[in-house]
Amino acid sequence: MNEVRVRIAPSPSGFLHIGTARSALFNWLYARRHGGKFLLRIEDTDTERSSKEMIDVIFESLKWLGLDWDEEPVYQSQRIDLYREHVDRLLESGRAYPCWCKPEVLKAKQQEAMKSKQNPRYDRTCYNLPEDEKKKLIDSGEKYATRLFIDDGATTFDDLVVGTVTKEHKELDDFIIARSDGRAVYNMAVVVDDHDMRISHVIRGNDHVSNTFKQILIYKALDIEPPKFAHIPLILGKDRSKMSKRDGAAGVTDYGRMGYLKEAVVNFIALLGWSPGDDREVMTIDEIIESFSLERISTANAIFDTEKLRWMNGEYIRACDNHKLVDLIRPFMVESGLVTQLWINSRWDWMMRYVSIFKERCQLLPEFAEQGRFFFADRIEFDHKGVEKHFNKEGVPALLGKWIDVLGGMEDFTVEKLEGALRGLAETLEVKPAALIHPTRLALSGETKGPPLFDMMELLGPEKCLERLKRAREFIKNSGERA
RNA sequence: GUCCCCAUCGUCUAGCCCGGUCUAGGACACUGCCCUUUCACGGCGGCGACAGGGGUUCGAAUCCCCUUGGGGACGCCA
Protein backbone atom coordinates (compact mmCIF):
# COMPACT_ATOMS: atom_id res chain seq x y z
CA MET A 1 0.00 0.00 0.00
CA ASN A 2 1.21 3.45 -0.86
CA GLU A 3 2.09 5.97 1.76
CA VAL A 4 -0.83 7.76 3.30
CA ARG A 5 -0.58 11.47 2.61
CA VAL A 6 -3.48 13.65 3.59
CA ARG A 7 -3.94 17.37 3.88
CA ILE A 8 -6.09 20.15 5.14
CA ALA A 9 -6.43 23.12 2.83
CA PRO A 10 -7.96 26.08 4.61
CA SER A 11 -8.35 29.46 3.05
CA PRO A 12 -7.24 32.19 5.39
CA SER A 13 -10.38 33.96 6.44
CA GLY A 14 -9.24 35.12 9.83
CA PHE A 15 -10.26 32.07 11.79
CA LEU A 16 -10.31 28.32 11.54
CA HIS A 17 -13.89 27.26 11.15
CA ILE A 18 -15.04 24.48 13.42
CA GLY A 19 -15.98 22.41 10.37
CA THR A 20 -12.56 22.87 8.88
CA ALA A 21 -11.08 21.96 12.22
CA ARG A 22 -12.94 18.69 12.21
CA SER A 23 -11.84 17.94 8.65
CA ALA A 24 -8.32 18.68 9.78
CA LEU A 25 -8.76 16.37 12.75
CA PHE A 26 -10.08 13.51 10.64
CA ASN A 27 -7.21 13.91 8.20
CA TRP A 28 -4.73 14.08 11.02
CA LEU A 29 -6.22 11.04 12.73
CA TYR A 30 -6.08 9.11 9.50
CA ALA A 31 -2.45 10.03 8.99
CA ARG A 32 -1.51 9.17 12.56
CA ARG A 33 -3.44 5.93 12.45
CA HIS A 34 -1.64 4.77 9.33
CA GLY A 35 1.77 6.23 9.92
CA GLY A 36 1.23 8.69 7.10
CA LYS A 37 1.83 12.37 6.64
CA PHE A 38 -0.51 15.20 7.48
CA LEU A 39 0.09 18.21 5.29
CA LEU A 40 -1.05 21.77 5.26
CA ARG A 41 -1.89 23.87 2.27
CA ILE A 42 -2.91 27.47 2.50
CA GLU A 43 -5.38 28.40 -0.19
CA ASP A 44 -4.53 32.04 -0.39
CA THR A 45 -5.01 32.71 -4.07
CA ASP A 46 -7.51 35.36 -3.17
CA THR A 47 -4.76 37.74 -2.17
CA GLU A 48 -7.07 40.58 -1.27
CA ARG A 49 -8.82 38.55 1.34
CA SER A 50 -5.83 36.92 2.94
CA SER A 51 -3.03 38.26 5.04
CA LYS A 52 -0.16 37.10 7.18
CA GLU A 53 -2.23 37.59 10.32
CA MET A 54 -5.06 35.46 9.03
CA ILE A 55 -2.68 32.69 8.12
CA ASP A 56 -1.16 32.85 11.58
CA VAL A 57 -4.58 32.34 13.10
CA ILE A 58 -4.82 29.07 11.18
CA PHE A 59 -1.45 27.92 12.44
CA GLU A 60 -2.34 28.87 15.98
CA SER A 61 -5.67 27.13 15.83
CA LEU A 62 -4.19 23.93 14.48
CA LYS A 63 -1.44 24.03 17.06
CA TRP A 64 -3.93 24.70 19.83
CA LEU A 65 -5.83 21.60 18.81
CA GLY A 66 -2.60 19.66 18.74
CA LEU A 67 -2.79 18.89 15.02
CA ASP A 68 0.82 19.06 13.99
CA TRP A 69 1.72 18.92 10.32
CA ASP A 70 4.63 17.03 8.88
CA GLU A 71 6.00 19.12 6.07
CA GLU A 72 6.37 22.78 5.27
CA PRO A 73 3.01 24.33 4.43
CA VAL A 74 2.28 24.85 0.77
CA TYR A 75 1.05 28.27 -0.28
CA GLN A 76 -1.11 28.41 -3.36
CA SER A 77 -0.19 32.02 -3.94
CA GLN A 78 3.35 30.85 -4.70
CA ARG A 79 2.34 28.28 -7.26
CA ILE A 80 0.46 30.34 -9.79
CA ASP A 81 2.91 29.38 -12.51
CA LEU A 82 2.58 25.69 -11.79
CA TYR A 83 -1.16 25.92 -12.24
CA ARG A 84 -0.75 27.90 -15.42
CA GLU A 85 1.53 25.25 -16.89
CA HIS A 86 -1.15 22.67 -16.38
CA VAL A 87 -3.83 24.88 -17.86
CA ASP A 88 -1.63 25.33 -20.90
CA ARG A 89 -1.10 21.62 -21.15
CA LEU A 90 -4.85 21.18 -21.29
CA LEU A 91 -5.16 23.91 -23.86
CA GLU A 92 -2.48 22.34 -26.03
CA SER A 93 -3.94 18.88 -25.81
CA GLY A 94 -7.30 20.24 -26.81
CA ARG A 95 -8.95 19.10 -23.57
CA ALA A 96 -9.62 22.73 -22.78
CA TYR A 97 -10.45 25.67 -24.97
CA PRO A 98 -10.49 29.44 -24.79
CA CYS A 99 -13.67 31.34 -24.18
CA TRP A 100 -14.06 34.98 -24.98
CA CYS A 101 -17.65 35.27 -23.83
CA LYS A 102 -18.36 38.29 -21.69
CA PRO A 103 -19.57 37.57 -18.17
CA GLU A 104 -22.62 39.76 -18.73
CA VAL A 105 -23.65 37.78 -21.78
CA LEU A 106 -23.16 34.54 -19.90
CA LYS A 107 -25.24 35.74 -17.05
CA ALA A 108 -28.05 36.78 -19.36
CA LYS A 109 -28.11 33.37 -21.00
CA GLN A 110 -28.13 31.75 -17.62
CA GLN A 111 -31.14 33.74 -16.51
CA GLU A 112 -32.97 32.87 -19.68
CA ALA A 113 -32.29 29.19 -19.17
CA MET A 114 -33.52 29.37 -15.60
CA LYS A 115 -36.69 31.03 -16.76
CA SER A 116 -37.49 28.23 -19.15
CA LYS A 117 -36.66 25.74 -16.38
CA GLN A 118 -33.57 24.54 -18.16
CA ASN A 119 -30.34 23.61 -16.47
CA PRO A 120 -28.11 26.54 -17.32
CA ARG A 121 -25.13 25.24 -19.27
CA TYR A 122 -22.54 26.97 -21.34
CA ASP A 123 -23.58 26.73 -24.99
CA ARG A 124 -20.04 26.33 -26.36
CA THR A 125 -20.25 29.47 -28.41
CA CYS A 126 -16.51 29.87 -28.38
CA TYR A 127 -15.81 26.20 -28.88
CA ASN A 128 -17.89 26.31 -32.02
CA LEU A 129 -16.27 29.42 -33.40
CA PRO A 130 -14.73 28.97 -36.86
CA GLU A 131 -11.02 28.22 -36.67
CA ASP A 132 -9.95 31.38 -38.45
CA GLU A 133 -11.99 33.50 -36.08
CA LYS A 134 -10.42 31.79 -33.05
CA LYS A 135 -7.01 32.40 -34.53
CA LYS A 136 -7.81 36.03 -35.06
CA LEU A 137 -8.94 36.45 -31.48
CA ILE A 138 -5.86 34.75 -30.11
CA ASP A 139 -3.54 36.79 -32.31
CA SER A 140 -5.30 39.95 -31.26
CA GLY A 141 -4.32 39.18 -27.68
CA GLU A 142 -7.91 39.39 -26.54
CA LYS A 143 -8.19 38.01 -23.00
CA TYR A 144 -9.94 34.70 -22.64
CA ALA A 145 -11.05 32.37 -19.91
CA THR A 146 -10.25 28.69 -20.23
CA ARG A 147 -12.93 26.04 -20.21
CA LEU A 148 -12.57 22.32 -19.83
CA PHE A 149 -14.26 20.36 -22.58
CA ILE A 150 -16.63 17.84 -21.06
CA ASP A 151 -17.76 15.05 -23.31
CA ASP A 152 -20.90 12.97 -22.99
CA GLY A 153 -21.12 10.28 -20.40
CA ALA A 154 -20.95 10.19 -16.66
CA THR A 155 -18.41 10.29 -13.88
CA THR A 156 -18.51 7.84 -11.03
CA PHE A 157 -16.30 7.44 -8.03
CA ASP A 158 -16.28 5.30 -4.95
CA ASP A 159 -16.30 7.49 -1.92
CA LEU A 160 -14.81 5.87 1.16
CA VAL A 161 -17.62 7.24 3.28
CA VAL A 162 -20.59 7.88 1.03
CA GLY A 163 -20.15 4.97 -1.36
CA THR A 164 -20.60 5.13 -5.10
CA VAL A 165 -21.70 8.45 -6.50
CA THR A 166 -22.44 9.28 -10.09
CA LYS A 167 -22.95 12.45 -12.05
CA GLU A 168 -24.24 12.59 -15.60
CA HIS A 169 -22.13 14.94 -17.63
CA LYS A 170 -25.20 16.54 -19.07
CA GLU A 171 -25.69 18.04 -15.64
CA LEU A 172 -22.29 19.58 -15.94
CA ASP A 173 -20.90 22.47 -17.88
CA ASP A 174 -17.72 23.13 -19.76
CA PHE A 175 -16.63 24.85 -16.58
CA ILE A 176 -13.95 27.46 -16.35
CA ILE A 177 -10.55 26.31 -15.14
CA ALA A 178 -8.68 29.59 -15.62
CA ARG A 179 -9.86 33.15 -15.43
CA SER A 180 -9.36 35.66 -18.21
CA ASP A 181 -6.44 37.09 -16.28
CA GLY A 182 -4.80 33.70 -16.68
CA ARG A 183 -5.05 32.57 -13.07
CA ALA A 184 -6.28 29.06 -12.47
CA VAL A 185 -9.52 28.61 -10.66
CA TYR A 186 -9.99 26.71 -7.37
CA ASN A 187 -10.81 23.29 -8.77
CA MET A 188 -7.86 23.42 -11.12
CA ALA A 189 -5.43 24.48 -8.44
CA VAL A 190 -6.66 21.80 -6.06
CA VAL A 191 -6.06 19.06 -8.58
CA VAL A 192 -2.59 20.27 -9.44
CA ASP A 193 -1.69 20.65 -5.78
CA ASP A 194 -3.09 17.36 -4.60
CA HIS A 195 -1.24 15.58 -7.34
CA ASP A 196 1.93 17.51 -6.82
CA MET A 197 1.80 16.93 -3.07
CA ARG A 198 1.18 13.24 -3.74
CA ILE A 199 -1.99 13.29 -1.68
CA SER A 200 -3.35 9.77 -1.30
CA HIS A 201 -6.67 10.52 0.37
CA VAL A 202 -8.77 13.62 0.17
CA ILE A 203 -10.87 13.76 3.32
CA ARG A 204 -13.14 16.77 3.31
CA GLY A 205 -16.65 18.02 3.93
CA ASN A 206 -19.59 16.62 2.06
CA ASP A 207 -20.20 20.02 0.50
CA HIS A 208 -17.31 19.19 -1.81
CA VAL A 209 -18.77 16.20 -3.61
CA SER A 210 -19.95 18.36 -6.47
CA ASN A 211 -16.42 19.68 -6.80
CA THR A 212 -15.12 16.17 -6.81
CA PHE A 213 -16.77 15.37 -10.13
CA LYS A 214 -15.17 18.40 -11.69
CA GLN A 215 -11.83 17.58 -10.19
CA ILE A 216 -11.94 14.02 -11.42
CA LEU A 217 -12.66 15.34 -14.88
CA ILE A 218 -9.56 17.50 -14.61
CA TYR A 219 -7.48 14.56 -13.42
CA LYS A 220 -8.63 12.60 -16.45
CA ALA A 221 -7.92 15.44 -18.84
CA LEU A 222 -4.48 15.78 -17.31
CA ASP A 223 -4.08 12.03 -17.59
CA ILE A 224 -3.15 11.61 -13.95
CA GLU A 225 -4.48 9.34 -11.26
CA PRO A 226 -6.94 10.88 -8.79
CA PRO A 227 -6.55 10.21 -5.08
CA LYS A 228 -9.13 8.40 -2.99
CA PHE A 229 -11.96 10.52 -1.68
CA ALA A 230 -13.78 10.48 1.63
CA HIS A 231 -16.53 13.02 2.16
CA ILE A 232 -17.45 13.45 5.75
CA PRO A 233 -20.88 14.66 6.88
CA LEU A 234 -21.30 18.31 7.67
CA ILE A 235 -21.63 19.92 11.04
CA LEU A 236 -24.88 21.81 11.25
CA GLY A 237 -25.83 24.60 13.59
CA LYS A 238 -28.93 24.72 15.76
CA ASP A 239 -30.90 25.94 12.75
CA ARG A 240 -29.88 22.82 10.84
CA SER A 241 -27.93 24.66 8.20
CA LYS A 242 -24.17 24.74 7.82
CA MET A 243 -22.65 26.04 10.98
CA SER A 244 -21.76 29.68 10.91
CA LYS A 245 -20.78 32.56 13.14
CA ARG A 246 -24.34 32.89 14.30
CA ASP A 247 -24.00 29.60 16.12
CA GLY A 248 -21.99 31.09 18.93
CA ALA A 249 -18.48 30.43 17.84
CA ALA A 250 -17.21 29.83 14.38
CA GLY A 251 -13.50 29.77 15.03
CA VAL A 252 -11.83 27.15 17.16
CA THR A 253 -9.91 29.74 19.13
CA ASP A 254 -13.26 31.13 20.24
CA TYR A 255 -13.77 27.93 22.15
CA GLY A 256 -10.51 28.43 23.94
CA ARG A 257 -11.55 31.91 24.84
CA MET A 258 -14.86 30.67 26.15
CA GLY A 259 -13.06 28.31 28.49
CA TYR A 260 -13.16 24.99 26.73
CA LEU A 261 -10.19 22.69 27.00
CA LYS A 262 -8.67 21.69 23.71
CA GLU A 263 -8.82 18.03 24.64
CA ALA A 264 -12.56 18.34 25.15
CA VAL A 265 -13.06 20.15 21.85
CA VAL A 266 -11.01 17.58 19.98
CA ASN A 267 -12.76 14.67 21.67
CA PHE A 268 -16.13 16.20 21.01
CA ILE A 269 -15.70 17.01 17.33
CA ALA A 270 -14.13 13.61 16.75
CA LEU A 271 -17.43 12.16 17.89
CA LEU A 272 -19.44 14.23 15.44
CA GLY A 273 -19.91 11.81 12.60
CA TRP A 274 -17.57 9.22 13.97
CA SER A 275 -17.72 6.73 16.79
CA PRO A 276 -15.37 4.01 17.95
CA GLY A 277 -18.13 1.43 17.61
CA ASP A 278 -18.53 0.81 21.30
CA ASP A 279 -19.84 2.94 24.15
CA ARG A 280 -16.69 4.92 24.77
CA GLU A 281 -17.08 8.67 24.57
CA VAL A 282 -14.50 10.33 26.76
CA MET A 283 -11.34 9.11 25.10
CA THR A 284 -7.71 10.13 25.05
CA ILE A 285 -6.30 11.23 21.74
CA ASP A 286 -4.26 8.04 21.54
CA GLU A 287 -7.37 5.95 22.01
CA ILE A 288 -9.08 7.94 19.28
CA ILE A 289 -6.17 7.47 16.91
CA GLU A 290 -6.08 3.78 17.62
CA SER A 291 -9.73 3.18 16.86
CA PHE A 292 -10.10 5.68 14.06
CA SER A 293 -11.20 4.49 10.66
CA LEU A 294 -12.93 6.03 7.67
CA GLU A 295 -15.38 3.13 7.53
CA ARG A 296 -16.81 4.17 10.85
CA ILE A 297 -17.68 7.67 9.71
CA SER A 298 -21.40 8.13 9.39
CA THR A 299 -23.18 9.50 6.36
CA ALA A 300 -25.69 11.76 8.07
CA ASN A 301 -24.99 15.35 9.00
CA ALA A 302 -24.71 16.21 12.67
CA ILE A 303 -25.92 19.12 14.72
CA PHE A 304 -23.39 20.75 16.97
CA ASP A 305 -24.77 20.30 20.47
CA THR A 306 -23.16 22.82 22.76
CA GLU A 307 -24.77 21.26 25.83
CA LYS A 308 -22.89 18.05 25.33
CA LEU A 309 -19.64 19.88 24.64
CA ARG A 310 -20.07 21.63 27.99
CA TRP A 311 -20.64 18.35 29.74
CA MET A 312 -17.57 16.88 28.14
CA ASN A 313 -15.55 19.91 29.08
CA GLY A 314 -16.63 19.38 32.67
CA GLU A 315 -15.41 15.82 32.44
CA TYR A 316 -12.02 17.04 31.28
CA ILE A 317 -11.87 19.68 34.00
CA ARG A 318 -12.54 17.10 36.67
CA ALA A 319 -9.89 14.81 35.25
CA CYS A 320 -7.36 17.60 34.91
CA ASP A 321 -4.62 17.75 37.51
CA ASN A 322 -4.69 20.75 39.78
CA HIS A 323 -1.41 22.22 38.71
CA LYS A 324 -2.39 22.30 35.07
CA LEU A 325 -5.81 23.58 36.00
CA VAL A 326 -4.39 26.58 37.81
CA ASP A 327 -2.41 27.31 34.71
CA LEU A 328 -5.51 27.03 32.58
CA ILE A 329 -7.74 29.25 34.67
CA ARG A 330 -5.07 31.89 35.14
CA PRO A 331 -6.09 34.08 32.21
CA PHE A 332 -9.72 33.92 33.23
CA MET A 333 -8.95 34.81 36.84
CA VAL A 334 -6.93 37.77 35.70
CA GLU A 335 -9.51 38.83 33.17
CA SER A 336 -12.22 38.82 35.82
CA GLY A 337 -10.18 41.35 37.73
CA LEU A 338 -10.09 39.23 40.87
CA VAL A 339 -6.36 38.75 40.98
CA THR A 340 -3.21 39.49 39.07
CA GLN A 341 -0.91 37.17 37.30
CA LEU A 342 1.69 37.80 39.94
CA TRP A 343 -0.66 37.09 42.78
CA ILE A 344 -1.43 33.68 41.32
CA ASN A 345 2.22 32.90 40.75
CA SER A 346 3.12 33.70 44.33
CA ARG A 347 0.26 31.66 45.77
CA TRP A 348 0.35 28.62 43.54
CA ASP A 349 -0.26 26.11 46.33
CA TRP A 350 -3.22 28.03 47.55
CA MET A 351 -4.56 28.17 43.98
CA MET A 352 -4.16 24.42 43.65
CA ARG A 353 -6.41 23.94 46.64
CA TYR A 354 -8.75 26.55 45.25
CA VAL A 355 -9.26 24.71 41.96
CA SER A 356 -9.59 21.41 43.76
CA ILE A 357 -12.66 22.56 45.66
CA PHE A 358 -14.32 24.03 42.58
CA LYS A 359 -13.37 21.64 39.82
CA GLU A 360 -16.29 19.31 40.25
CA ARG A 361 -18.80 22.08 39.84
CA CYS A 362 -17.34 23.88 36.84
CA GLN A 363 -17.93 23.07 33.21
CA LEU A 364 -16.23 26.10 31.74
CA LEU A 365 -12.98 27.69 32.86
CA PRO A 366 -14.40 31.15 33.61
CA GLU A 367 -16.70 29.57 36.17
CA PHE A 368 -13.72 29.18 38.48
CA ALA A 369 -13.60 32.93 38.69
CA GLU A 370 -17.35 33.41 38.93
CA GLN A 371 -17.99 30.83 41.59
CA GLY A 372 -15.04 31.76 43.72
CA ARG A 373 -15.53 35.49 43.52
CA PHE A 374 -16.36 35.72 47.24
CA PHE A 375 -12.90 34.53 48.14
CA PHE A 376 -11.45 37.74 46.81
CA ALA A 377 -14.19 40.27 47.45
CA ASP A 378 -13.76 42.79 50.26
CA ARG A 379 -17.43 42.96 50.96
CA ILE A 380 -19.89 40.29 50.02
CA GLU A 381 -23.57 40.58 49.31
CA PHE A 382 -25.85 38.09 51.01
CA ASP A 383 -28.24 36.16 48.86
CA HIS A 384 -31.77 37.40 49.64
CA LYS A 385 -33.43 34.05 49.84
CA GLY A 386 -30.55 32.81 51.91
CA VAL A 387 -31.02 35.65 54.40
CA GLU A 388 -34.69 34.71 54.75
CA LYS A 389 -33.87 31.09 55.24
CA HIS A 390 -30.76 31.09 57.37
CA PHE A 391 -30.31 34.51 58.98
CA ASN A 392 -33.83 35.62 59.90
CA LYS A 393 -34.38 32.89 62.43
CA GLU A 394 -34.57 32.91 66.20
CA GLY A 395 -31.24 32.75 67.86
CA VAL A 396 -29.00 32.88 64.83
CA PRO A 397 -26.94 35.84 66.05
CA ALA A 398 -26.39 34.14 69.39
CA LEU A 399 -25.44 30.95 67.62
CA LEU A 400 -22.98 32.80 65.44
CA GLY A 401 -21.61 34.53 68.54
CA LYS A 402 -20.79 31.22 70.18
CA TRP A 403 -19.29 29.93 66.95
CA ILE A 404 -17.16 33.03 66.66
CA ASP A 405 -15.87 32.48 70.15
CA VAL A 406 -14.92 28.92 69.39
CA LEU A 407 -13.19 29.87 66.18
CA GLY A 408 -11.33 32.69 67.85
CA GLY A 409 -9.71 30.20 70.16
CA MET A 410 -8.73 27.72 67.53
CA GLU A 411 -5.11 26.98 66.84
CA ASP A 412 -5.20 24.72 63.79
CA PHE A 413 -7.55 26.10 61.18
CA THR A 414 -7.84 22.84 59.29
CA VAL A 415 -10.75 21.02 57.71
CA GLU A 416 -10.68 18.27 60.33
CA LYS A 417 -10.38 20.56 63.32
CA LEU A 418 -13.02 22.92 61.99
CA GLU A 419 -15.46 20.16 61.42
CA GLY A 420 -14.77 18.75 64.86
CA ALA A 421 -15.22 22.14 66.43
CA LEU A 422 -18.51 22.85 64.71
CA ARG A 423 -20.00 19.48 65.45
CA GLY A 424 -18.82 19.72 69.01
CA LEU A 425 -20.42 23.10 69.44
CA ALA A 426 -23.64 21.91 67.86
CA GLU A 427 -23.76 19.06 70.32
CA THR A 428 -23.26 21.18 73.40
CA LEU A 429 -25.83 23.69 72.18
CA GLU A 430 -28.16 20.84 71.28
CA VAL A 431 -28.75 22.00 67.72
CA LYS A 432 -28.22 20.26 64.43
CA PRO A 433 -24.89 20.94 62.77
CA ALA A 434 -26.84 22.27 59.80
CA ALA A 435 -28.18 25.08 61.99
CA LEU A 436 -24.64 26.39 62.18
CA ILE A 437 -23.41 25.30 58.80
CA HIS A 438 -25.96 27.13 56.68
CA PRO A 439 -25.68 30.55 58.31
CA THR A 440 -21.92 30.21 58.30
CA ARG A 441 -21.84 29.43 54.61
CA LEU A 442 -24.02 32.40 53.88
CA ALA A 443 -21.92 34.63 56.10
CA LEU A 444 -18.70 33.59 54.42
CA SER A 445 -19.70 33.39 50.80
CA GLY A 446 -22.99 35.21 50.52
CA GLU A 447 -24.28 32.09 48.83
CA THR A 448 -26.48 29.19 49.85
CA LYS A 449 -24.54 26.81 47.73
CA GLY A 450 -20.91 26.12 47.07
CA PRO A 451 -18.02 23.87 48.01
CA PRO A 452 -17.92 21.98 51.32
CA LEU A 453 -17.95 24.51 54.16
CA PHE A 454 -14.85 23.39 56.00
CA ASP A 455 -12.76 23.38 52.85
CA MET A 456 -13.92 26.89 52.22
CA MET A 457 -13.06 27.97 55.73
CA GLU A 458 -9.62 26.50 55.71
CA LEU A 459 -8.86 28.17 52.42
CA LEU A 460 -10.33 31.45 53.49
CA GLY A 461 -8.28 31.52 56.65
CA PRO A 462 -9.16 32.52 60.21
CA GLU A 463 -9.04 36.30 59.79
CA LYS A 464 -11.50 36.49 56.95
CA CYS A 465 -13.77 33.88 58.48
CA LEU A 466 -13.98 35.72 61.76
CA GLU A 467 -14.40 39.08 60.14
CA ARG A 468 -17.19 37.89 57.86
CA LEU A 469 -18.94 36.01 60.62
CA LYS A 470 -18.92 39.10 62.79
CA ARG A 471 -20.17 41.26 60.00
CA ALA A 472 -22.98 38.81 59.34
CA ARG A 473 -23.96 38.89 63.00
CA GLU A 474 -24.14 42.69 62.92
CA PHE A 475 -26.08 42.55 59.68
CA ILE A 476 -28.70 40.29 61.22
CA LYS A 477 -29.02 42.41 64.36
CA ASN A 478 -29.40 45.60 62.35
CA SER A 479 -31.98 44.22 60.01
CA GLY A 480 -33.80 42.82 63.00
CA GLU A 481 -34.01 46.25 64.62
CA ARG A 482 -35.31 47.79 61.46
CA ALA A 483 -38.03 45.21 61.17
C1' G B 1 -35.63 25.35 -10.28
C1' U B 2 -31.77 21.33 -11.57
C1' C B 3 -28.53 17.74 -9.67
C1' C B 4 -26.13 15.06 -5.59
C1' C B 5 -26.44 13.15 -0.74
C1' C B 6 -28.86 11.80 3.80
C1' A B 7 -32.94 9.73 7.24
C1' U B 8 -32.70 5.24 14.70
C1' C B 9 -34.82 8.91 21.18
C1' G B 10 -35.12 16.63 21.41
C1' U B 11 -29.42 16.13 20.33
C1' C B 12 -24.74 12.93 19.39
C1' U B 13 -24.82 7.93 18.23
C1' A B 14 -24.52 1.81 18.46
C1' G B 15 -27.06 -1.73 15.55
C1' C B 16 -27.70 -1.72 9.05
C1' C B 17 -22.89 -3.83 4.66
C1' C B 18 -23.25 -10.13 6.33
C1' G B 19 -31.90 -9.89 7.68
C1' G B 20 -33.80 -13.52 13.25
C1' U B 21 -29.54 -12.66 19.34
C1' C B 22 -33.58 -5.51 19.12
C1' U B 23 -39.77 -6.01 24.08
C1' A B 24 -33.53 -1.26 19.58
C1' G B 25 -27.91 -0.33 23.43
C1' G B 26 -24.97 4.04 25.22
C1' A B 27 -24.22 9.42 26.03
C1' C B 28 -26.05 14.70 26.59
C1' A B 29 -30.44 17.17 28.11
C1' C B 30 -34.89 16.51 31.17
C1' U B 31 -36.59 13.86 35.46
C1' G B 32 -37.31 10.42 40.33
C1' C B 33 -34.58 8.25 44.31
C1' C B 34 -29.96 7.51 47.02
C1' C B 35 -25.36 9.73 48.95
C1' U B 36 -24.93 14.56 51.51
C1' U B 37 -24.08 20.73 55.58
C1' U B 38 -25.82 23.38 50.41
C1' C B 39 -24.53 23.09 45.36
C1' A B 40 -22.03 19.89 42.47
C1' C B 41 -19.86 15.09 41.64
C1' G B 42 -21.17 10.05 41.90
C1' G B 43 -24.68 5.70 42.06
C1' C B 44 -29.48 3.48 40.80
C1' G B 45 -34.08 4.27 38.03
C1' G B 46 -37.63 6.97 34.57
C1' C B 47 -39.10 9.57 30.05
C1' G B 48 -37.80 9.10 25.01
C1' A B 49 -36.53 6.78 18.37
C1' C B 50 -36.32 2.64 13.80
C1' A B 51 -40.20 9.42 9.13
C1' G B 52 -44.61 7.22 6.18
C1' G B 53 -46.26 3.68 2.57
C1' G B 54 -45.49 -0.36 -0.43
C1' G B 55 -42.74 -4.68 -1.66
C1' U B 56 -38.95 -9.14 -0.95
C1' U B 57 -38.90 -12.86 3.02
C1' C B 58 -41.17 -17.85 7.37
C1' G B 59 -39.04 -13.29 9.54
C1' A B 60 -36.86 -6.25 8.17
C1' A B 61 -34.37 -0.92 12.08
C1' U B 62 -31.47 -3.97 8.79
C1' C B 63 -32.53 -5.51 1.46
C1' C B 64 -35.54 -2.92 -2.87
C1' C B 65 -39.03 0.96 -4.60
C1' C B 66 -42.05 5.28 -3.85
C1' U B 67 -43.53 9.43 -0.87
C1' U B 68 -42.24 12.90 2.70
C1' G B 69 -38.67 15.48 5.34
C1' G B 70 -33.64 17.43 5.79
C1' G B 71 -28.94 19.00 3.96
C1' G B 72 -25.53 20.36 0.20
C1' A B 73 -23.88 22.02 -4.63
C1' C B 74 -25.11 24.72 -8.76
C1' G B 75 -19.41 31.80 -9.66
C1' C B 76 -13.99 34.17 -14.49
C1' C B 77 -15.14 32.62 -4.74
C1' A B 78 -12.45 29.18 -2.13
Q: Can you walk through the features of this model?
A:
The chain is mainly α and 483 residues long. It has helices at 18-33, 52-65, 80-93, 103-115, 131-140, 186-196, 209-222, 252-258, 262-270, 285-291, 306-319, 322-335, 341-346, 348-358, 367-371, 373-376, 384-391, 396-408, 415-429, 433-445, 453-460, 462-482; strands at residues 5-8, 37-42, 74-75, 96-99, 145-148, 154-159, 163-168, 176-178, 201-205, 228-232, 235-236, 302-303. The longest helix has 21 residues, at 462-482. The chain is elongated, with a radius of gyration of 33 Å. The structure holds one RNA strand of 78 nucleotides.
Write the layout of secondary structure elements.
Blueprint: E1 5-8, H1 18-33, E2 37-42, H2 52-65, E3 74-75, H3 80-93, E4 96-99, H4 103-115, H5 131-140, E5 145-148, E6 154-159, E7 163-168, E8 176-178, H6 186-196, E9 201-205, H7 209-222, E10 228-232, E11 235-236, H8 252-258, H9 262-270, H10 285-291, E12 302-303, H11 306-319, H12 322-335, H13 341-346, H14 348-358, H15 367-371, H16 373-376, H17 384-391, H18 396-408, H19 415-429, H20 433-445, H21 453-460, H22 462-482
Parallel strand pairs: 1-2, 2-3, 9-10, 11-12
Antiparallel strand pairs: 4-5, 5-8, 6-7
Helix pairs in contact: 1-10, 3-6, 6-7, 9-11, 12-14, 17-20, 18-19, 18-20, 18-22, 19-20, 19-21, 20-22
The chain binds one RNA strand of 78 nucleotides through α4, β7, α6, α7 and β12.
